[in-house]
């Protein structure tokens, strides 16, 4: 911008001279402070690398925390009451959801329980790397342990009739835990599930088996005997070729 | 390249990181700026604070400085704003903002100095300082920007936010009152 002193109303120099005589200047401490501030403000510029670095570090830390928290959330945390309450929940679900069907088929809730057994087994503690010592669950002690916040909530939200039913269900729990084998024998459990849950049956010796077949023939249960014989031949082909005689089967 | 441009170059060098350019700039303007602020705020204790605040703003806003205006214009605009802030914070404006010609003349008479005696520069300076304090604030600001800051009428108008005619009128009134207060021992 050009200075336009041509329009100045009066010369400034005499006034400057006069003002300069009377007024003092800033103290030396003020001079030093201002000069130091000017230098200080220039200096940190080269050292500002820490600002983005600290922001990046904070971000990484936040991501790590969130991921670790999210990881624990993905893995189901099973507290004692969860483990103990599973059977009760399963039983109640069966009773409510599959109840009518089960009643139509003439099965009691305790008979329907084995159908829920494979689901319960999906959540056994071993699958998550727990053992019974950690979770505090024992097969024999499941029934009495039912409780905890879920139980209280459930109890408070149940109608009186429902409560009675669930009490029944709970008292059935130990039996349900023991039930699989008997249920499998009764044919209520799917074969695959039964095979999975049952301990493998002790193999019969061909002699015993053959004797049972002969007994069936003697009793007149021929069709059954033939099926068993066929199974024997498949299981012990060499033994059957040597020992099974047509005369025995008449 | 004029004086103003030299200051602008120093400021640009400082903005680029040259601390010695600031020292040079500060040495050039410290006295006049101090006097300007001293007479604006009329408070010895506050002068130091306002002076430091002014330079702090210069330092903080160095990157915003553009040499399309003289450095002095920019510096005194900052100083003027600092003085206004000071008045706002302290809740009062120029003590004798409404002073009229008679009051100025009375103040000059109160000094009891004969024109010949006032010829002594020290006494004249004291009388001038006293008369400046009695000027309305707008006239005092315009006068100090003109004399101490070396700003032109247009620059004063820009700094104080008024029309150039108004700035020129304030300058004339201020000079007339000050001459009157000094009597025959005017600055000329």
**What best-fitting shape of chain A do the alpha-carbon axes yield?**
rod-shaped
What's the number of domains of chain B?
2
H/E element sequence of chain A: HHHHHHHHHHHHHHH
What is the CA–CA distance across the termini of chain B? 30 Å
Number of strands of chain B: 0
Percentage beta strand of chain A: under 5%
Order of helices and strands of chain B: HHHHHHHHH
User: Gap between N and C termini of chain A, in Å?
Assistant: 131 Å
Q: What is the CATH topology classification name of the largest domain in chain B?
A: Rna Polymerase Sigma Factor, Chain: A
The proportion of residues in beta strands of chain B is: under 5%
Total helix count of chain B? Answer: 9
Largest pleated sheet of chain A:
none
Report Rg of chain B. 17 Å
Mean pLDDT of chain B: 79
Largest interface: A-B, 35 and 50 residues
Average pLDDT rating of chain A:
64
Low-confidence runs of chain B: 94-119
Task: Describe the 3D structure.
- The complex is a heterodimer of chains A (250) and B (188).
- Chain A has 15 helices and no strands.
- Chain A has helices at residues 13-22, 28-42, 50-74, 80-96, 99-104, 109-122, 132-135, 142-145, 148-157, 160-178, 180-186, 191-197, 206-219, 222-235, 237-243.
- The model of chain A is unreliable at 97-121, 123-151 and 160-198 (pLDDT under 50).
- Chain B is mostly helical.
- Chain B folds into 2 domains: 3-90, RNA polymerase sigma factor, region 2, helix turn helix motif (Rna Polymerase Sigma Factor, Chain: A); 101-182, Winged helix-like DNA-binding domain superfamily/Winged helix DNA-binding domain (Arc Repressor Mutant, subunit A).
- Chain A binds chain B through residues 1, 3-5, 7-12, 14-27, 30-31, 33-35, 37-39, 41-42, 45, and chain B through 2, 4, 14, 17, 19, 22-23, 26, 30-31, 34-35, 38-39, 48, 51-52, 55-56, 59-60, 68-70, 73, 121-122, 124-126, 128-129, 143, 146-148, 150, 152-155, 164, 168, 171-172, 175, 178, 186-188.
């Amino acid at each position: 911008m050009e200075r336009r002193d041509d329009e100045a109303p009066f010369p400034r120099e005499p006034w400057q001279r006069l003002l300069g005589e009377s007024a003092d200047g800033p103290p030396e401490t003020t001079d030093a402070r201002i000069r130091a501030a000017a230098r200080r403000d220039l200096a940190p510029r080269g050292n500002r690398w820490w600002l983005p670095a600290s922001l990046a570090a904070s971000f990484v830390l936040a991501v790590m925390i969130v991921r670790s928290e999210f990881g624990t959330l993905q893995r189901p945390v099973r507290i004692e009451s969860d483990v103990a309450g599973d059977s009760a929940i399963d039983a109640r679900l069966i009773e409510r959801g599959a109840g009518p069907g089960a009643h139509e088929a003439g099965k009691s809730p305790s008979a329907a329980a084995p159908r829920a057994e494979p689901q319960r087994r999906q959540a056994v503690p071993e699958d998550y790397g727990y053992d019974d010592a950690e979770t505090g669950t024992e097969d024999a002690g499941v029934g009495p342990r039912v409780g905890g916040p879920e139980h209280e909530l459930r109890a408070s939200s149940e109608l009186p009739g429902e409560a009675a039913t669930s009490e029944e269900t709970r008292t059935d729990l130990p039996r349900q835990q023991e039930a699989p084998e008997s249920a499998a024998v009764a044919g209520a459990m799917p074969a695959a599930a039964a095979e999975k849950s049952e301990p493998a049956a002790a193999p019969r010796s061909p002699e015993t088996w053959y004797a049972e077949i002969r007994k069936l023939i003697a009793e007149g249960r021929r069709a059954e005997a033939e099926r068993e014989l066929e199974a024997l031949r498949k299981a012990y082909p060499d033994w059957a070729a040597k020992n099974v005689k047509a005369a025995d089967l008449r | 390249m004029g004086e103003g441009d030299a200051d602008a170059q120093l400021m640009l060098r400082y903005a680029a990181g040259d601390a010695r350019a600031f020292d040079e700039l500060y040495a050039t303007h410290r006295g006049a700026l101090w006097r300007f602020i001293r007479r604006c705020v009329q408070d010895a204790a506050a002068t130091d604070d306002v002076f430091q605040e002014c330079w702090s703003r210069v330092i903080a806003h160095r990157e915003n400085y553009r040499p399309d205006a003289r450095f002095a214009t920019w510096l005194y605009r900052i100083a003027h704003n600092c003085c206004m802030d000071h008045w706002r914070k302290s809740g009062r404006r120029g003590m004798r903002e409404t002073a009229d010609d008679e009051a100025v003349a009375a103040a000059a008479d109160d000094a009891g100095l004969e024109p010949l005696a006032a010829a002594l520069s020290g006494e004249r300076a004291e009388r001038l300082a006293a008369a400046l304090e009695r000027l309305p604030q707008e006239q005092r600001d315009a006068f100090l920007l003109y004399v101490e800051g070396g700003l032109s009428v247009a620059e004063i108008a820009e700094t104080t936010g008024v029309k150039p005619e108004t700035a020129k009128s304030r300058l004339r009134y201020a000079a007339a009152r000050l001459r009157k207060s000094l009597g025959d021992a005017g600055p000329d």
